[in-house]
Specification:
single chain; 1 helix; about 60% helix; mainly alpha; elongated; about 45 residues
């Protein structure tokens, strides 16, 4: 499927996708700060 450039569907889709990714990342940081989730620490050799 190719967008002929008549609309901004691709830009809008990418904007929504990036916005949701940032919101999810911030929610995970907030949940960690609130103590809802805890990191286990990955053991490195």
């Amino acid at each position: 499927m190719r967008d002929k450039g008549g609309t901004n569907r691709t830009v809008n889709a990418l904007t929504v996708r990036i916005g949701l990714s940032i919101a999810l990342f911030l929610f995970v940081l907030f949940a960690h700060y609130m103590g809802w989730i805890e990191s286990t620490g990955i053991a490195a050799r």
